[in-house]
Amino acid sequence: MPFLSAALDRVKPSPTIAMTTRAMEMRAAGRDVIGLSAGEPDFDTPDHIREAAIRAIREGRTRYTAVDGIPELKQAICAKFARENSLDYAPSQISVGTGGKQVIYNALMATLNPGDEVIIPAPYWVSYPDMVLLAGGTPVPVTAGPEQGFRLMPDQLEAAITPRTKWLILCSPSNPSGAGYDSAQLRALADVLLRHPHVRVLSDDIYEHLVFDGFRFATIAQVEPRLKDRTLTVNGVSKAYAMTGWRIGYAAGPEELIRAMARIQSQSTSNPCSISQWAAVAALTGPQDFLEPNRTLFQKRRDLVVDLLNQAPGIACPRPQGAFYVYPSIADCIGAVSRGGRRIDSDTAFAEALLEETGVAVVPGEAFGLSPAFRVSYATGEDQLREACLRIRSFCEGLSR
After folding, report:
1. Does pTM top 0.70 for this prediction?
2. Which of 124, 231, 255, 287 has the greatest number of beta carbons closer than 10 A?
3. What's the rounded mean pLDDT across residues 130-141?
4. Which burial class, exposed, middle or buried, applies to 221 when counting CB atoms under 10 A from its CB (0-12, 13-18, 19+)?
5. Separation of alpha carbons 318 and 377, rounded Å
6. What whole-number distance in Å separates Cα of residue 278 and Cα of residue 70?
7. 50 occurs within a structural domain
């Protein structure tokens, strides 16, 4: 009898975490490494949020809470959806988990049966397909490349839907491409979904506040109210509020689904950290004036990275609408040989050679389901970004055929 579960055969470790770990190991060994693989802001959590957490500790708010969130946080989330997204939810329609990843995992575990299909536009966040597989479902990736702005087209969605389709996962702005769907583009997808009432939508809005060049964020339940009862709208405090380590994500959706997700959570982790929940209340109800300066800084970094990468031979880097990633193509680098003698026969080989020869850590496109490309996170200081991009350009200039 095997000791380990067969479920492990269906999934692989996170490539993002693997690359970040390798960069940390090299740095610990004394190498000069610039990490552009981790997806977290380099800002400190705002003071009023940290003070709220300290206050919660001093007031003894350190015990178990309701499985899927304290009432105060659920009320704050309802108010956020009403204020920012024109969506009306009751606390009974809110789930709070240990990060957005757990919320999504709970939803998939609560709804997927063997053979159920989940449509996932590619490139995608690395965890979506593996979470579907762990839940017993079948991921159905649909390629949405740079020629279509990294966005799923309505005819592609129509062609991908089958009687076994249970979910469509949308992430806007996207990890890894930074592409966003505006209201008209969401409306076109909604028109398809209205013809297929058995398909639900999981809308991952975690990068909502990080949009550029006048792009106006919208979420699909807001654009098409008739889809609201078929939509789970996921968000969290990790990205916009620089609270990745606090591990608070949340979602709004139909009560039946929210209750089912709570059952999953009750037998896995139980409640999220009580201190983090009170910090999240402060994040959602307190001052929001830091969001705009942070957004402006991220836009400046985006422009720097896009401009510098497009100077590197063999790289074509689109300018994204949001998040803090770029997803450049390296199609013209495939088949070359690096100065160190490494053959670049894939984007994984490119990323490995880049790290070993220049000390720059990026994530290969293979991890996101669309090659040949790589993802850069520009959630780091401008000086490091400039130096990293110059190293990437030098690496590309040294490629030979």
Report:
1. yes
2. 231
3. 97
4. buried
5. 14
6. 8
7. no
